[in-house]
Amino acid sequence: MAERTVVVVGGTGLAGRAVVEEALRRGHRVRAVSRHVPPAARQVLGAEYVAADAVAGDAPARLGAAFAGADVVVDTVNGETPAAAKVLTAGAASIALAARDAGVGLAVVLSIVNVDRGGAVGYYRTKVAQERVYQAGAVPTTLLRAAQFHDFFDRFFGRPTLGGALSRLGTVPYLRGARLQPIDVTDVARAVVDACAAPDAPLDGPVRDEGEPGRRTVTVAGPEELDGRDLARRWAAAHGSRRVPLGLPVPGYGAFFASGDATAPDARYGRVTYDEWLARTARA
């Protein structure tokens, strides 16, 4: 892919930072946009950092300046709070308009595997609304729907739940009946940067590719399908924990994960397995 100017909105978050690193690795000019510019010690060397709040009154001017000269805008904004929901929808509208006015040729929007089947989950409904904002806009768009990141399970298994009671009882809570196909965030970043090449750019691995250039949806998932209990067992073993896996029903999310909609067997784009990720990150 020829050198491009890639602007990553949400470029200081987990996925955004990984996209910044991958785009730089491939020789692109990269600009990371977030509400606040991080301290130099937390910046990725080689990236330019710009402060812009997509829902603030000065968003058009700040986003316009951030997008000047950009070939691609990547939206990796995430969050499940009410404030984040506003950014995902109203913010998406501001980003899409600013990208159009700046003459940006392509938007790549990070979303969730089979998100349109997750109507029982409020966050998923918000993500679908975000997708529709871009699809209705003037800038050619690729929706990059990814399976759950490995990091999602680390936070879930390691976080005290129910006021810490379950952790004190020596358990690792997991979603009962969940069928999952987790993907490493570095693989997601690789897919995003693949997609940045052009509206019809091929990706370097198996994907589910739907729609047409300019209104395209690409799905990527990890290399293996696992159930919730197996993930919890592997997490506990890697962390040297004696806590026992405990399956819990979780309204909304639980039904989505149990249905198999969190998997995409035809889109095994990811290369890093869950065990490989644990070996790299676990604190045993």
From TrEMBL:
GO terms for molecular function: protein-containing complex binding. Residues 4-199 form the NmrA-like domain. InterPro entries: ComplexI_NDUFA9_subunit, NAD(P)-bd_dom_sf, NmrA-like. This is NmrA-like domain-containing protein. It comes from Cellulomonas fimi (strain ATCC 484 / DSM 20113 / JCM 1341 / CCUG 24087 / LMG 16345 / NBRC 15513 / NCIMB 8980 / NCTC 7547 / NRS-133).
